Structures are given as structure tokens and as C-alpha cells.
Amino acid sequence: MRKFTWLIVLFLMAALLACAAPAPLPVAPPAQMPPPSPTSVSSTPTPQDAAWDKVIEAARKEGKVTVYSFNLIGDLATAVTKTFEEKYGIKIEIVTGLGTVLIERLKSEGAAKKYIADAFDTAVSLVATAKTTGLTTSVGDLPVLAEKDVWYLPPRLDPEGHIIIINPSPTSIYINTKLINPGGEPKSYKELLDSKWKGKIGISTPVTDPVPIYSYVARKQMGLEEDYWRQLSRQDLKVVPSRRDADNILARGEVPLIYAASASTTGPLMREGAPLKAVEVEEGVIMAAGPGITLLKEAPHPNAARLFINWLLSAEGQKLWSEKRGSLGMRKDVPDYQHPDAKMPLKKIIYQSLDDVMELSKVQREGTMAKLLGLEK
């Protein structure tokens, strides 16, 4: 009897222990397992990435970039300087002036073996002049230049990579809308030879400003012979030193129209309320290569200069440039900040090629158009 009682007790204890045992933990299905650490090829730095990281590191050690500039002025210069310095910790120094004057300064500094500037921005034609003078060198393999399908106009103009476009520049006749009523604007460049426009045309001198020369270089596409400018010179032109001066005399109402201008310089004035408007003439709108930039051969801070040029062509740099200048950018991922009165339908566009830029540079150096207009160097 005792034996039977112990068996019952042992059986009951075993049952109690089985009930008290913890249930096995559920196994998570594969879909709920934590994702593995990323090991895809796309996350692996490429040799190009590593090389550019070294450029950035070297640029930070250089600590400074000096730009001789026609374009980096006012709000644009302030915004570019602040954004770039905060991003990379590299100081920017900007020295401004006319492109032709800055080229002479670079020549003088080179002759004295006193190298100050790292990069030079001005009209693309003058960047080409700096190249032919031997002042420039290739920017090399900038990451931004390898980007595909983001450009309206590819930034690298020459195969060697000396001439880099910052911003395209649609160019045409501009009018003061307070002085010329709708419908009263000239419909073509040829119409400017009419006696009614005598003494009423402003123009920046082709001695120092390439903008008037755009139409000379495009004369075959536009149907304008050299004699056209000789006749134009007899219209008592109001000649001023630069395109900014031309924009300003138009905004002040000193003339009702100017021979050629672009949104890159009229944009800031239009945002301030200047009564300016672009005219699409029958010869077509010249899509000039516009402002350009180059790396200087004897740059004391070459890595910082390359980094700056790359950044200026990035979406961030292009947005600042276009926004502050009120211009059309080169990138499809950057908004068009042109003032409504600067926008043209662009029914007929005359694009500027590298050959055009080189001819423009030659015409300006030799003063061809200046002589046709009776403006000797």
C-alpha cells in the first residue's frame, strides 16, 4: 500500500513540474528578421570617390581660394561665400573687375612671379582668351562633370577642360517698357537702322564687353553682313563701358532700348522693379555660353579652386547662382529664376559653339567689331 501511495505522489509531482515548465519561444518568420548590414556594391566607395576625398582633404589644408571675378558681386557673392565657407570651412576671397582688366592683372602678376588668384570667372569668351594667353589649366575630372542627363547645356566647353560654363545666357534686344509701348518695340536687329531709333540705342562697348559681339559671331545665321555695324555706328549710339552700365542707363530711362543684353545681368534690376523687357527678334535669340570659369595654371590653392568650381556647378551652387542672378540655370534639377519679362518664347535659338567662342575671343582681342562701330581700342 505504501509503495502504491509513493507512486501516486511521484506521478503528481511530475505532472506539476511539466505544467510549470516555460513554453518554448516562438521562432520569428524570415520576413520579421532584422535586415542584414548593407553590403551592396553601390555603398562601396569607388576609386574616383577616394580620389575626390583626397582633393577635399587637400583643399581644407590649403584653407583658402581666391577668385578673380566679374560675376560674383552683391547678393550672389555674399550667398556663395557664406554657403561654401560653412560647408567646407575654406575661406573665399573675391577680387572683382572687368574681365579684360583682370586678365591684364593676371599677366602682370605672372611676369612678377606673384601668383594670387586660383580661379577666374568672366564671360566665356574671355576665359577662352585667358586660355590662349597661357594663363589656365584643366580643371581635371570633377565629379560634377560626370553627371548625366542633368544639363540643359553641358558645362565643359573645350575638350581640354579649361573653359567651364557656369550659366547659359539668352541674349537679345532689351527695352524700357515706360518708354516703348507694347507693339512699338523693334522686331529685328535690322530695324535698328531706321532713323526713328537714331540717338536712342545704348550699347556696351565691344572693346571690353563680349555681349554685343555675340551677334557679330552669329552674323551668318542672322543674315547680317559686316556693313550692318558700319551703318549702326551712324545711329549716334550711346556707348558705355560694360553691360551693367548698359542695363543701368536703360533702367534709368536714358535710352529706350539697348542693343544686346542678357538675363544674367538684367535679372537683379528687374527683381528690384526696373521696367525692362526682353524682345525676341526675328533673327533669333542667341543662347550664348555666358559666364564661365577656369582654373589658373599657377594657382596657389589648386585643390580648393577645383572644389569651388565643382560646388559652383552642383545643384546647390547652381540654385544660388540662378536665384541671385534671376537667370536660367544649366541644370534640370534647378528652378528657372528668370523674371517673367526676361523670358522669351525661344522660337529660334542660335547656340554658341566652341568655335563661336574662340572666334568671339579673337574678334574682341583684335577689336574687329569695335573698328566697324568706329570705336578704336
Outline the structure in words:
- The chain has helices spanning 2-20, 47-62, 74-88, 99-111, 124-132, 213-217, 219-222, 227-232, 243-251, 263-271, 302-312, 315-325, 354-366, 368-372; strands at 64-69, 91-96, 119-123, 136-137, 164-165, 169-176, 201-204, 238-240, 257-262, 276-279, 285-288, 291-296, 349-351.
- The chain is of the alpha/beta class.
- The strands form two sheets. Strands 6, 7, 8, 9, 10, 11 and 13 form a seven-stranded mixed sheet that branches.
- Helix 3 (74-88) links the parallel strand 1 and strand 2.
- Helix 3 runs antiparallel to helix 12 and helix 5 (124-132) crosses helix 13 (354-366).
Kindly report the average pLDDT value: 86
Q: How would you sum up the global shape? A: globular
Following the backbone from N to C, one meets helices and strands in this order, namely HHEHEHEHEEEEHHHEHEHEEEHHEHH
Biggest beta sheet summary = 7 strands, mixed
> What distance separates the N and C termini?
134 Å
Query: What is the β-strand count?
Result: 13
- Beta-strand percentage? 15-25%
Taking pLDDT < 50 over at least 5 consecutive residues as the criterion, the unreliable ranges are 1-43
Q: SS-based structural class?
A: alpha/beta
Count of helix runs: 14
Proportion of helical residues: 25-40%
**Rg value:** 32 Å
A few lines on this structure:
With 377 residues, this protein is of the alpha/beta class. The protein contains 14 helices and 13 strands. Residues 1-43 have low confidence and may be disordered.
